[in-house]
Amino acid sequence: MKYCSLDPDVGTLYLYFTDIEEGQATAVMEYPVSLLLDAQGAIFGCRLDLDDEVILSQLELVLEGSYNWLDGEYGHLYIRIADEDPVETITLSETAILDLDDDDLVLGIELALPEEWRTPERLQRLTPLMVTFDDEPVDGEGPVVFTPPAISADDLPDSDEEPATPVAEEPLQWRSGFVALVGKPNVGKSTLLNALLGEKVAIVSPRPQTTRVPVRGILSRPGEQIIFIDTPGIHEPSHRLGKLMVELAERTLPNADVICFMVDISQPPTRLDRMIAQQVQRARGHKLLVLNKVDQKPKRPGENYLPAYRELGQWEMEIAISARRRLGLTALLSEISARLPEGPPLYPLDQMTDQTEQQLAAEFVREKALFYLQQEVPHAIAIEVEEWQEKETATYIRMTINVEKESQKGILIGAGGGMLKKIGSAARASIERMLGRPVYLDLWVKVRPNWRDDPSALGWLGYRAKNFL
Ligand SMILES: Nc1nc2c(ncn2[C@@H]2O[C@H](COP(=O)(O)OP(=O)(O)OP(=O)(O)O)[C@@H](O)[C@H]2O)c(=O)[nH]1
Q1: Nearest-angstrom CA–CA distance, 264 and 276
Q2: pLDDT above 60 (res 283)
Q3: Ligand 1 centroid vs 298 CA: distance in angstroms?
Q4: How far is C-alpha 350 from the geometric centre of its chain's CA atoms?
Q5: Which domains are present in the chain?
Q6: Residue 344 counted as an annotated binding residue
Q7: Above 0.95 for ipTM, yes or no?
Q8: Using an 8 Å Cβ cutoff, are 305 and 141 in contact?
Q9: Is the pLDDT at 318 greater than 90, yes or no?
Q10: How would DSSP label each residue in 50-71?
Q11: How far is residue 208's CA from residue 188's CA, in Å, rounded to a whole number?
Q12: Is 176 part of any known ligand binding site?
C-alpha cells in the first residue's frame, strides 16, 4: 500500500497503490472485505474475497506492495503493511470497492469503515501512511475522483448530504405517496433505495436480476411520508420466477404517484430501456428520468448518452445522480416531495421497510451467494428460514438454501465446505449488524429440482403474486 486517507464525513477509508490523479479511475468492482487486526486490535491490513472475474494482471500495482499477496486457491487478496498474521479478522458488512483505471489496473480500494473502526487506536498502524483528505484533491492526494460524463460535478448537490431521519412530529397537512423505482436490471435501483433511507433494506450486487420481489422503503420526514418501491429489473424472462419478477415490477406502475425511471448514464440505452420507458409513459404518475452512475465514465470515451435517454419519453424532470456516491440525492428528494399528493402517513413513522428481519436475513445470505458464486448458481438459489430463536447469548438462525441441481449444491458447499463457510460468515456479519446482537447462523443446502419453473415450489417458497399486491 502506498498511502491511505480517511474521509470521516462518509466514513470511507481509501487505500492507494499508486498516485491517483483526478479522473484516473474509470471503473469499479466490489468484493466482500475483512479487516486484519493485530494483538492490540489495530488495523494493519485487509483481506478481499475475490472471484474469477478478477484477473492477475489487474492486480499488478497491488502485488507490487511488499506484504500484499494473493492466495489463489481461495481467491483471498491480502493487503498488509507488515509481514504478520492477523490475530483477528473482522468481516465488514459493506463490500469494498476496487477502483480501476482505463487499462483495467486496480489503483485503490475504498472501505466503508463503521464508526467504531475509525478511532485513533484502531488506525494507529496506518497513521504513517495517511494523507489528508481534501475536498478538492490534487494529484497524489485525496480520494479517487471521477469525472461525470455528461453532467459536471458542480451541477450536483454536495455529496455529504445526510439521508433524512424519521421525525415523529404532527404537522398540519401531511403529504404521502408511492414512488416506484423502475428500470432494467443492474441500473442501481436498490443502491438508490438504500442511499435514500441511509439503511440497507434491499440487497445489492453487481449481477443483474438481484431484486426478485418489490421491496418497500419508507422515508418519513416532517409533514411527509415517501414510500419507495424498489422493483425487480424488467427483463425478458426465461423461467416462471423471471416472469413473476417482471409482472410484479410492472404492477407497481399504475399505483405509483411518482415514477423514477432509472437508467445507467454510462451506457447507451438498449431495447429494454426503450420498452420500459414506453410502459412508464402509459402510467398516470409523475415521470422523472433518473440518470444514475454519473461517477462512471461513458462506455465509449467522449460519448454523451443523455440526449438518447431524453428521447425515450416525456419527462417532467431529469436528475443526474450517483446512488453509490450519494450525489444528487437532495435534488431528487425535493423533486419527489414536490409531487406527492396530500394524504396521511400510511405506515408508522418509525417503520423503514415492509420486510421482516427474517426476510432481510435470508436476503443477506442470497446477497453473499451472489458475490461469491459464478454465473447461474446464485440465480438458482432460494432461501427458507427454518428456525429463529432468541437464545441467551445469540440469535440462533437455521436456513435452508435451495438449489436446482446436485452440481450447484457441490459448488455452493465448495471444497471442504469452504464456500458455504465464506457465504455464512459474511452473511452473519450483516445479520448481526442489523440485529445488533451475536448470531449463530446454521446453513443447510437442499436440491429442489427446477424450482424456478415449478408453480407449486414457487408458491411454497413465497414467490406468489398475491403476497406482494
Ligand atoms: N459506479 C456506480 N455503480 C453503481 C451506482 N449505483 C449502483 N451501482 C452498482 O451497480 C450494480 C447494481 O446495483 P443494484 O442496486 O443491485 O441494481 P438494481 O437496479 O437494483 O439491479 P436489479 O436487482 O438487477 O434490478 C452494483 O454493483 C452497484 O454497486 C452508481 O451510482 N455508480
Answers
A1: 13
A2: yes
A3: 16
A4: 23
A5: 3-129 (no CATH), 153-337 (3.40.50.300), 357-468 (3.30.300.20)
A6: no
A7: yes
A8: no
A9: yes
A10: --TTS-GGGGHHHHHSTT-EEE
A11: 10
A12: no
Distance in Å, CA 408 to ligand 1 centroid: 26
Q: Sheet containing 76-80: which strands, arranged edge to edge?
A: 69-71, 76-80, 43-49, 33-37, 88-91
295 lines ligand 1 (CB under 6 A): yes
| Cell reading at 338 | 414536490
**Amino acid symbol at 268:** P
Q: What is the pLDDT of residues 390-420, one digit of tens each?
A: 999 999 999 999 999 999 999 999 988 989 9
**Residue 226 CA: distances (Å) to CA of 233, 325, 327, 336, 387:** 21, 21, 19, 8, 33
Q: Are 227 and 255 in contact (CB under 8 A)?
A: no
Q: Which of 170-179, 286-295, 325-334, 344-353 has the lowest mean pLDDT?
A: 170-179
- Dihedral sign for Cα 322, 324, 326, 332, please: positive
pLDDT in tens, 292-308: 999 888 878 888 999 99
Determine if ligand 1 sits within 6 Å of the CB of residue 266.
no
Which residue owns the Cα nearest ligand 1 atom 30? Answer: 293
- Give counts: helices (H), strands (E), the chain: 11, 19
Ligand 1 in contact with 191 (CB < 6 A)?
A: yes
Dist CA 337 CA 226 (whole Å): 8
Ligand 1 centroid, distance to 192 Cα (angstroms): 8
- With contact defined as beta carbons under 8 Å apart, do 125 and 240 qualify? no
* Cα gap 229→233, rounded to integer Å: 12
* 168 grid coordinates: 415523529
In the structure grid, which three cell numbers stand for residue 311, read together? 428521447
- pTM of the predicted protein model: 0.71
